[in-house]
Structures are given as structure tokens and as C-alpha cells.
Design goal:
Length: 781
């Protein structure tokens, strides 16, 4: 109770200090200045109020108290603002400016006019007291105007017919509706796209005009939609594509023999100054073709897909008229550097251990002449534990070596013909192979080899599919002999059998993603990803026809090694809500289940199991240190606690959720935007069945809610537009390894030394950390 009161008092004092400091801003101003303290709009319908407020000048809107506090902290001295302010730190006070008030009133009136309120008036009212200004915009909206009659006047009957077929069925301007200028602009844009998509290369938006007559009945309008002809013609001219010229430029590289070919069937003249590309893979995504009418949508689609092939840094399409109704199309492309190399590294520090990861990625962007991407990745990671005795080499807790090769082909490569329709995105075929060698001191070693064939494609703008028909894997896991014997002596034989083993896997995977393209947008939307991973079923069917050898435990073997059989699925649902400006709320729920059965019916292997904690999940816990269930490592002997770390806290069931509020702190910090986030994470992992290795770790419907862990925290995001650097500090609130009210560990935050010392005595060498720091690239979800 005392600790809760301390926490409440600390939080209250901090908030009061922040408010008090920002309120003192007025004393830093000159006598003729006033801080804008309150701005409001009166008389506007609720559905228009938020949009109307956007037309108030930002310079006379109320400051963010946090940003104003930061500005004052660095820019005041002796009760006055410094003559030379530090720019881009916080937010300068917004001062009353009558000129900006009048300008904002005019902008609000103009906006209301576009919404049909032709008689609207806006009267600003300003009150100043003790250097603080209150601004009220008093609006008299009046009654809106409605479109009583809409007539059409087309100079060219062909355009009139196209409008009737392509635009009119889905028109946004209808008789009886309230006047809205935005709808008129939308209608003009629809006609523009329809004309350009039907060959009218010279058509421009200004040919369509709308005449408005408000002289009829009260609050009623007559509209006349007019589409004029070109000034030098009696009709609009449609154009057909004639010849295609494709040129790949060679800038900044060694000069080579220029390759020139001519495709007489498709009338394509191909010139490759680099002598590295083949024409056929490129023509799949060149949608402007000879014999077809000019089409703006297909031109934009060509731009998108040629860029998406990732082989070109510049793509330009232009046209040249050859006679009265013919166009020659010219594609000019500048390739990206053929080969590249990227080195990445990071330093890790957590739970008293430190280490580093370093990786190197070599890429070849056009290995077979069709913008195919070859990637060779090397990665090495090492973690040191200072609690281990001996020299520095003896303090290595674990090390991890990974080697991978990916070949990405920008089309579907199948043994049977399939459509490579790339209307919404590029279809890709990916061949990949990787090898991992992992060793943990005196505990465990793992050799993992996997080969996959993956197809990915877009069903629509927001629906994305990934199908991996072949997942071929081999794994050899070995427990240290002394460690394995120690486990057996303490009754953990099942754990030894499940991890001290070889296996062979043959399976398939599928994933569906909805709205992934919206993840970086500030708008309201839902995101969903679902995945299914199956293995061993084909081999199981074959085993019913062909007799397989078996191990001493009865497992069927392929090529002398037992094969896996399991089913795994995971869902990820997120709700994104834009709260205006740079403020956003995100809620996420992420459940999953993995079921071993048939030939592998004990525990899921390490690589396929779920774990809790980490920078993208339960951020108050280090990865693989949460759960399963209410499992407490005090039940394990001291020597096993050290060696089992990151191996014993896994599960076959996962339920995880997060809620995060994101907001802007500073607009510019070293060339990047600094955003903040407060978050709450909740969840855990569980075992499917009771297991002697994890007492209390099994999932039970009447207990799992009480075993949910809760963490909270604050984070900073440095957004440079190209990537986001993320720093999060997660604080444990509820820890299910304890029981009853002791789970609410936050109450021990202010007497943490005593709590941590007591925990260490019963859990050594494990130490308890209330706060977990996370460093990452990109948003957590």
C-alpha cells in the first residue's frame, strides 16, 4: 500500500511540475505579447468541426505542453527568452497574431463555401488576460445549397458516350445532394482517367468545367457539366501505340559492347548499353504495348512494376507522335549497381550478459539477366556471461553462426503455366537455403539445415499470399553428455529425448496478409496475418504403403533419421486508429498453437515452439524468459538454471496482446523525427500437456487468465523516413511466476534492492530485473 501511494505521489508530482512549468511560459514574454491558451470554433456542425479546425493557422493553435516545456528548458535564462534560440528543440510558444486570426477566419469561410454553405460568415473573437489569449471563431453557417438540376454539355459526342459508360454509373454528383466542391473535383478526375485510359493522350483536366447557377429557388443550384474540345480541333483525338523503344542506359560503369535487338512481332527495339539484361523478363511488366490504345493506368503500372523488380534506380516513359493518331513509346531505364555489399552489427546487453551480432549481405541484382536477385548472407553472434569462471574464451555462453543463400525471381516459376498478373504487386519465386550452427556452453549444440521453395503474389491491393509448397529441413540437436545425464538423474528424461535428437522434416507453409501496405500510414484500418505450418503428413501417407524403419522409441525413419509430424498456426490481428496529426493508437492480439502428433507426439522441437518476451512482444521480459504458465525456475537446481537458460521457457500455446499510443515529440533531431510511445503488453506461453520440466506450465481454461503477464513502458522512435531506430524500456507489472498478490511485482519497484536480493538467493544465478531495455529497427508491430 505504501509503495502504491509512493508511485501515485511520484506520478502526480511529475505531471503537476510539467503543467506548472508550461504555465509559467507567459512570464517569459514581452509586455506586448500573449500566449495562445485556448482556441475553439463555435457554430459548425459536429461532423465538420474537426476538418474545419485544420484551416486555423498552426502558429495560433495551442502548444503541446510537453513540447513547450522542452523548448523553455533550453531557451530561457533569467526569466527571459535567449536572444539566440536553439532551433528544432521542442516547440516555440505560439503567440497571438491578429493577422493570422483574420487569415484563419477567411480560410474557414472559404472551406465552408466549398461544402455548400455559400452564406456562411466567420467572426473571430479575441480575449487577452495576463498575457494569455483566448480565440473563438464564431461561425454562422446558414443553410446549405443543394443540387436541384444537373445538365451536361459535351462538345464531342464520343466523349459524351465515354462519360455515360465509364463515369456516370458511379458518379458522386447527384441531383438532390448537398453541393460539395470535392465531389466535383473527383468527377473531373474520373473523366480524366477514363479519357487517358482510352487513348486520349492530349486530354487535360481543364477541358471539364462546371457552371453553377444559384439564381433558382432558395438554396437550390443548377449545375451544367461542360467538356470542351481542343481549341484547334472539332474533336478529341485518340492515339494508338506504334513502335516500342527500350533503352537500358550505362552510366558510371565500364563501357561494354552495346546489345541491340528487334522483336518484329511486338515491334520492340531493344538497346542494352550494359549488355547485362534480357528483353523477355522485362516485357512481362511493360504494359504499354504496340497496337494498343494509349493507357495512363497501364503506364503507371509499368512504372510500379519495373521499379519493384529492384534492378533499376530510374525508369522513364515518354512518347513521340508519328502521325495523326500514332505514338511511339520510349522506355528508358538506368540500372542500379550490379553488385552490393552491406555490413550490419549490433551490441547486446541484458541480464548481466553482453555480446554482439555482426552480419554481411552480398547481393547480385541481375544474375541471370532478368533482374533476379541473389543474396548471400553471413551472420555471427556471440554472448558472454561474466559469471562463468576462467579466461575470456571460457566466458562464452553461446555463439551462433548462420549462412544463407536466397534467389528471388520476379515472376512465378512453375512446371505448369500460371498467370503472372502483377496488377497489384510483383509475383515472386524464392529459392532459399540456410545453415545454422549454434552452441551453448556445456549445454546444447544445434545444426539446422533448411531448404524452401516459396511463391508470393497479390490477390488485390490489400490481400497478399505466400505459399511454400516445399520445406525440406534437417536438424541435429545434441545435449552435452554431462548435462544430459544430469537431466536424467533429476527426472527430465522426456526433455532429453525431445531435444537430444536428429530429425528430418518435409512440409508446407501458407500465410495470408491483409492491409500490410497500410502499416506506415496514419489512418484507420485493420491488419491481419494468419499462417499455417504443416509437416510430415506426406511422409506419413507414404509410410502406410512403404515400410519405414523405426527407432527404439517406435518413431518412423526416413534416410535413417526420424521425421517430424506437427501442425502449427498463428494469427496476428491489429486495430489502428488515427487520433489526428501524428497521434495513433494501436491494439494487437496474437494467439498461436502448435500441435505435435503422429510420428512426433511428445514436445514440439525448439525451433517450432513459441516463446515469450523480446523486443517485439512482451517488452518487459528478455526473450525466452517468460512462462510457460506459472512456471518458476526456483524448482530447477542451480546448475540447471544456468545451463537451461533460453531452453526451458518454451510452449506450444501462445496468447499475446499489446496496446500502444504513439505521438510526435520533436520534428527534427539530427535530421530525424523523434516520436514517443507508451504501451501495455500482456500475454504468456503454455505447454499443451503437463510436463515435469515446467511445473505449472500447462494450459488450463480455469487458470490461464491468472497466468497472464502484464508489462508497461515508454519508448522513443527516431524516424529518418528510410528506417526507424527504436528504443523501448519495458517495466514488469504482473509476473505469473509468483502466486496470488505477489504477482503484482510493481509494488516492489521502490524497494527493489531487498526484493532482488531475496530473489537472487532462491534463483541464483538468475537475477530479477524490473526494467528491460530493447533496441530495434522498425516498429514492434
Amino acid at each position: 500500500m505504501i509503495n502504491n501511494q509512493r508511485l501515485l505521489a511520484f506520478t502526480s508530482i511529475t505531471l503537476l511540475l510539467l503543467i506548472f512549468t508550461s504555465c509559467r511560459t507567459a512570464r517569459f514574454l514581452n509586455e506586448d505579447q500573449a500566449l495562445v491558451d485556448h482556441v475553439d470554433i463555435h457554430g459548425v456542425k459536429p461532423e465538420l468541426k474537426e476538418t474545419t479546425s485544420l484551416y486555423i493557422s498552426n502558429e495560433i493553435k495551442v502548444n503541446s505542453r510537453v513540447n513547450l516545456f522542452i523548448y523553455n528548458l533550453f531557451n530561457t535564462k533569467d526569466g527571459k527568452y535567449k536572444k539566440r534560440n536553439i532551433r528544432n528543440v521542442g516547440e516555440a510558444p505560439h503567440l497571438l497574431d491578429s493577422g493570422l486570426v483574420d487569415l484563419s477566419a477567411t480560410q474557414i469561410k472559404r472551406f465552408l463555401f466549398t461544402k455548400g454553405y455559400f452564406g456562411a460568415s466567420v467572426t473571430p473573437e479575441i480575449a487577452v488576460k495576463k498575457k494569455r489569449a483566448t480565440i473563438h471563431f464564431n461561425v454562422t453557417q446558414g443553410d446549405p445549397y443543394y443540387m436541384s438540376k444537373i445538365t451536361y454539355n459535351f462538345a464531342d459526342p464520343i466523349v459524351a458516350d465515354l462519360y455515360k459508360k465509364e463515369v456516370k454509373p458511379a458518379t458522386v454528383i447527384k441531383e438532390g445532394d448537398q453541393y460539395d466542391a470535392v465531389n466535383l473535383i473527383t468527377e473531373r478526375e474520373k473523366l480524366y482517367m477514363a479519357m487517358r485510359d482510352h487513348g486520349y493522350f492530349d486530354y487535360i483536366r481543364q477541358y471539364m468545367r462546371v457552371a453553377v447557377d444559384s439564381m433558382s429557388k432558395k438554396n437550390q443550384l443548377n449545375l451544367e457539366v461542360q467538356v470542351e474540345n481542343p481549341s484547334d480541333s472539332t474533336k478529341h483525338q485518340a492515339y494508338t501505340i506504334d513502335n516500342i523503344f527500350v533503352t537500358i542506359r550505362n552510366f558510371g560503369t565500364a563501357k561494354k559492347e552495346i546489345k541491340q535487338t528487334f522483336d518484329s512481332i511486338n515491334k520492340i527495339h531493344f538497346t542494352d548499353e550494359t549488355n547485362n539484361f534480357r528483353l523477355k523478363p522485362l516485357t512481362r511488366y511493360m504494359y504499354i504495348k504496340s497496337g494498343n490504345p494509349y493507357n495512363l493506368t497501364k503506364e503507371n503500372l509499368s512504372y510500379d512494376r519495373l521499379y519493384e523488380m529492384n534492378g533499376f534506380r530510374s525508369v522513364k516513359i515518354h512518347y513521340q507522335k508519328t502521325d495523326s493518331n500514332k505514338l511511339d513509346a520510349f522506355y528508358e531505364m538506368v540500372p542500379r549497381p550490379l553488385m552490393g555489399n552491406q555490413i550490419e552489427g549490433e551490441f547486446t546487453l541484458s541480464s548481466g550478459m553482453s555480446g554482439f551480432n555482426i552480419g554481411n549481405t552480398f547481393s547480385h541484382r541481375n544474375i541471370f539477366g532478368g533482374a533476379e536477385l541473389l543474396e548471400v548472407k553471413l551472420r555471427y553472434g556471440i554472448l558472454f556471461d561474466p559469471r562463468l569462471s576462467g579466461s575470456i574464451s571460457n566466458k562464452i555462453f553461446n555463439n551462433d553462426i548462420q549462412i544463407g543463400v536466397n534467389l528471388i525471381v520476379p515472376r512465378m516459376m512453375t512446371p505448369f503455366p500460371v498467370s503472372n498478373n502483377a496488377q497489384y504487386g510483383l509475383a515472386k519465386t524464392t529459392f532459399s537455403t540456410s545453415l545454422q550452427i549454434f552452441n551453448q556452453d556445456a549445454t546444447y549444440s544445434n545444426r539446422y539445415f533448411i531448404n524452401t521453395l516459396n511463391y508470393s503474389w497479390h490477390e488485390s491491393a490489400n490481400k497478399f499470399h505466400s505459399f511454400t509448397p516445399i520445406v525440406l529441413e534437417y536438424r541435429q540437436g545434441r545435449l552435452n553428455d554431462n548435462f544430459a545425464q544430469n537431466l536424467i538423474d533429476q527426472g527430465y528424461l522426456l526433455y532429453v529425448r525431445s531435444n537430444n535428437r536428429e530429425y528430418f522434416g518435409l512440409g508446407s507453409q501458407y500465410a495470408f496478409t491483409y492491409n500490410a501496405k497500410k502499416l506506415t500510414k496514419k489512418e484507420n484500418f485493420n491488419y491481419f496475418k494468419g499462417s499455417v505450418d504443416l509437416s510430415g503428413n506426406i511422409l506419413d501417407l507414404v509410410s502406410r504403403v512403404v515400410k519405414f524403419d523405426r527407432t527404439a522409441d517406435g518413431e518412423k525413419k526416413v534416410l535413417g533419421v526420424p521425421y517430424l509430424q506437427y501442425a502449427k498456426t498463428e494469427l496476428d490481428y491489429r486495430l489502428y486508429r488515427n487520433l489526428g496529426g501524428n497521434r495513433q493508437f494501436v491494439f494487437r492480439i496474437n494467439p498461436g498453437i502448435a500441435i505435435p502428433y503422429g510420428n512426433n507426439s511428445t514436445l514440439m522441437i525448439f525451433e517450432k515452439s513459441f516463446y515469450g518476451g523480446g523486443m517485439n512482444g512482451m517488452r518487459a521480459w528478455q526473450a525466452r524468459t517468460l512462462g510457460p504458465g506459472s512456471y518458476n525456475r526456483e524448482s530447477v537446481s542451480e546448475d540447471l538454471r544456468l545451463n537451461l537458460r533460453n531452453l526451458d521457457q518454451l510452449g506450444e500455446i501462445k496468447i499475446e496482446g499489446n496496446a500502444e499510443y504513439r505521438f510526435r515529440i520533436l520534428n527534427s533531431v539530427l535530421g530525424a523525427k523523434m516520436n514517443g510511445a507508451t504501451f501495455v503488453d500482456f500475454g504468456n506461453v503454455w505447454r499443451l500437456k503437463e510436463n515435469e520440466l515446467n511445473p505449472g506450465g500447462e494450459f488450463k481454461f480455469d487458470k490461464f487468465l491468472s497466468q497472464i503477464a502484464i508489462g508497461t513502458g515508454f519508448g522513443l522512435r527516431f524516424d529518418s523516413d528510410y528506417f526507424i531506430i527504436r528504443l523501448d524500456a519495458g517495466l514488469k507489472v504482473k509476473d505469473p511466476q509468483f502466486s496470488g498478490s505477489d504477482q503484482w511485482v510493481l509494488k516492489h519497484f521502490f524497494d527493489s534492492k531487498e526484493f532482488k536480493d531475496q530473489y537472487y538467493q532462491t534463483h541464483r544465478p538468475d537475477r530479477y530485473n524490473f526494467i528491460q531495455y530493447n533496441f530495434g529497427i522498425g516498429l514492434p508491430f
